Amino acid sequence: MAPKTSEQNLEIREFKRKLIMDSACDLFANHGFFDTSISMIAKKAGISKGLIYNYFDSKEQLLKALVLEGLETFHENFDQNKDGILTREEFEFYISRYFSLLQENTKFWKLYFAIVIQPPVLELLDEELRKFGAPMIQTMSNFFKDNGYEDPPTELAFFSALLSGLAIKYLNAPEYFDLEKLKTKIFSIYQIKS
Q: What is the pLDDT of residues 52-106, one digit of tens each?
């Protein structure tokens, strides 16, 4: 049998990393970060506990990697040209992608919303979440200001609560929430033509 090429080794390594992250995401979302052990993750992934440490130094590092990769995908869809100014088209695209991402990666979003309601876990990710959140909050606040909203901070709070609330409800009972109809409703609230 011929030795594996470096490309094959890289593919195997990426496959194992993804397997570990998927298993951890599922367990963290359903059992909580503190109630999930490295042993549980290894068992779910069907690998040895020691192998996990070849990829991640700790459970905290694994959590950070999960959240950062998930948020990176999410933020790629916000302010597409990255100029710090959100146009109406970018706002519409962001809302549409928000709902698509909920459907495409429900495991991650269950984890994310489980984290944000657990202050001790949230504290572990405070720096990373601020890095992603602060520019987004400023850009969105400017969008509401530039579009004539009387109280942009309150509008931003309402918009954020609306999307988060819909996401949480959808993740808990998707059969009761038609995301296309909800997206249309949000578009009508913000006077976007779909």
A: 999 999 999 999 999 988 888 888 888 888 898 999 999 999 999 999 999 998 9
Residue 113's nearest CA partner among 19, 185, 25 is: 25
Which residues of the chain fall short of a pLDDT of 50? none
Inside any domain, residue 194: no
Q: Tell me which residue range forms the domain holding 136.
A: 59-189
How many distinct helices (H) and strands (E) make up the chain? 10, 0
Eight-state DSSP code of residue 3 = P
Per the CB < 8 A criterion, the answer to whether 149 and 159 are in contact is no
Alpha carbon of residue 139 to chain centroid = 19
Q: What angle do CA 126, 124, 55 make, to 5 degrees?
A: 120
Task: Please say whether the beta carbons of 12 and 4 come within 8 A.
Answer: yes
Q: How far apart are the first and last CA of the chain?
A: 57
CATH number at residue 27: 1.10.10.60
Give me the CATH number covering residue 82: 1.10.357
CA atoms within 13 A on the CB side of 135: 12
Report if pTM > 0.90: no
